[in-house]
Amino acid sequence: MPTILEQQQASFKDLLQFPAQVDFRIIVDALEEDVIAKLRSALTDICGRQEYPVLGEPRVSSNGRYVSYTLRANVQSAEMLNKVYKELGSLPCVKHLL
To answer: How high does pLDDT run on average in the chain?
Structure first.
């Protein structure tokens, strides 16, 4: 029986053709300093040197505790996409990743 990770990779492969441009909505702590630089650094470690544009304006939560950004990255494979979700999601400043 395939593991959950193998099932996710299979579904990513079914839904996307790689390489693909993926927009990541990243919700972070509003008090975090240099958060865009930290997110871009983590993406560079995973996806290599490329531009990681911030799409649109950041959104602040109603209580002001969180800010969400949308960053675009070129992802080469389902395995790389899983790694982005896992590693970006584990950053202390990241509260949620879509």
So the answer is: 89
